[in-house]
Amino acid sequence: MEIKLRSSVDYHKLYEAIPSPSVLSEPITIDLKEHGFFNPRDIVMITLFIISNCSNEHVVMVQPPLDKSVGGYLEDIGLVEFCTKNLTQSVTIEAIQKVTAMPIRRLTSDNMTEYIDYAADYFKEMSDNRDLTMFNLSVAETINNVKDHAQSPIDAYAFCQYFPAKKQIKVVVGDLGIGIPNSVNNYLKKNNNPVISEIESMKWALTENRSIKSQPQNQGKGLNNLLTFVKANKSSLTLYSNNAMFFATADVEIFKKNEYSSFSGTLIEVVINIDNLPEASFEEVDFVL
For residue range 204-243, what is the model confidence (pLDDT) as tens digits? Predict the structure, then answer.
């Protein structure tokens, strides 16, 4: 089986092609030869697909981009090596200095805090003395909400990268669980409420004080916190889950059909504009004498 990906427009092919564990006998080849620029969202999408199939004992091969700089990027972040040789995670977290990124990381309740702390320290070095409290919150809320709704057989995966030219940090977390709409409707049915559409389910999950499983100290505020932060920071939030998609900036909220058809899980992308973060307080600044 060959899946040809030229850009993120083709990524729906990945989830249309995920076979059941007992069906596929031939290797799966992901053809990236003509692929150009990769966004962090693309990296997480490919990661989820490869790990899902490798976990089902399918053989996955990747044909790298012909463009040497694009292929070099995938090599620098260790995409294929992580997905095919290390289905859990590396022993240590090591930032990828060459492309100003955190490595792909499998996230569990046990290592979530470690990842958030390390990411905050790493991005602090390039954040122009900005207060990263809201960055920490956005990473934590993104991970928590994916974890809360997931029921994912392969856990959740994260990838974060800083883009110096735009002074943006992109945080992406995804899973292949049952998805937010299914999760919300399961909750509603359990409480004898009528089932709602997938887009209405997404709106339900984004409303403050509505939750199916959040921790008590944050019950019903996770996605709403993310949305509030994005608007205040003049950044963006994109949420893909089942057949629904949500996109928001300071001025716009859009609900529509998910462009990645057959995507069963949840993927959240937060784009943080560094210049719009507040300056760090005196106590938070590190001085070198």
Answer: 988 866 655 544 344 335 688 888 888 988 999 999 999 9
User: 236, 148 in Cβ contact below 8 A?
Assistant: no
Domains of the chain, first to last: 1-87 (3.30.750), 95-279 (3.30.565.10)
Closest by alpha carbon to 73, among 106, 108, 39? 39
Q: What is the pLDDT of residues 30-82, one digit of tens each?
A: 999 999 999 999 999 999 998 888 888 888 889 999 999 999 999 988 888 78
